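Hi,

I'm pasting everything inline rather than attaching a file, because the server keeps stripping attachments. The sequence lines come first, and each chain or strand is labelled.
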Amino acid sequence: MASETELTPTSYIQHHLTNLTTNIGEGPFWVLHIDTLVMSVLLGVLSLGAIWMIVRTATSGVPSKKQAFVELLIEFIDDQVKNTFHGDRHSFVAPAALTIFVWVLILNAMDLLPIDIMAAVYENVFGLHNWRSVPTTDVNTTFALALSIWILTIYFGIKVKGIGGWLGELVFSPFGKNPILWPLNLLFNLIEYVSKPLSHSLRLFGNIYAGEIIFLLLGMWAATGAAGAVFGAILGAGWAIFHILIVTLQAFIFMMLTVVYLSMAQESH
Amino acid sequence: MNINFTLVSQAIAFSIFIWFTVKFVWPPLLRAIEDRQKQIADGLAAGERGKKELELASQRSSDTLKAAKQRANEIVIQAEKRAADIIDEAKLAAKEEGKKIIAGAKAEIEHEIFSAREVLRQQVSSLAVQGATKILRREIDSKAHADLLTSLETELK
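And the predicted assembly:
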């Protein structure tokens, strides 16, 4: 709505779904989404930094309210990890799960900011015409997370089973060691290896992106007149309340899938 | 929806955040939580120990009480026995003493009787002598019969 040009539904949606980009090299790949990067790093630093500030002064005695809150969060995640992952979880998996949960949750939660007000703020205060608040509606973010975890699963798989064991598992499981079954096993495993990061990242991306689109559609409806504004406001509030659940749930699912993939990578079939 | 270098930069940011959490966020709080869990466990164990000790102490105190009661009972019984003994002894001594007193009294009485009898006898003999003297005064010359009278007197004594 901040655009001064002619406002059509298409231009409205396109305006809200356009990243602020900068070219850092030749070709379509060497493009950086400034808004995604700045928002995600800023929010990550804020949320994890806040937790770090609280944790720095943690005592084993009577905890302060802030410490008790962080302890609740950490114990909740530690419980989830403990039930899924068997092994030394404190050295990597549990803190990684905490990072993912907190970061994805706060990135998703940006979806609850009123898009048009935020767009006006970005436009008028910072002079940014295109600026997307929600980094998880950028497929680059979710793929970055999922692919990092995918690489970690392969790393942990090789670390635990050895390169031979890991390659052996690629051709020997899930159907058996009979040489006739090798191509089938390999095909099956390759499909699994491709589908894991795809489903992992696209689930998060799809849910949050769809949520944002619904907000946009309600915003468009609100622009049609008084009745549209009333219904748009009521439904927007309802969708925002429901979206709190989706935001949290998707962050939780993303974290749990990470833990499950990492524990699967370390266990033999 | 276009994949570009943002992915790489996000992956780098993600790695840094994970490293930060693994290094700085997770360990101190985990240590605090584990310390507290240990403290709570220790406290519970101490409480359990205290309860057991209390049980033992109450057991001991009731034992001591029982022993003391028994001892007191024994002392009372002994004291009663001793009292009875003392009474018996006293009775015996009293009886002895009474007997002694009675014997003394009897001896005194004998003595009294004896001396009374003596006095009486003297009196009777003097009376008899007087009577005889009076009777004989007329008939006997006291000079002539003096030796007779003296001998009679000594005999009567």
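The interface with chain A takes residues 1-11, 13-15, 17-18, 20-22, 24-36, 39 of chain B (CB under 8 Å).

If the labels don't parse on your end, tell me and I'll reformat.
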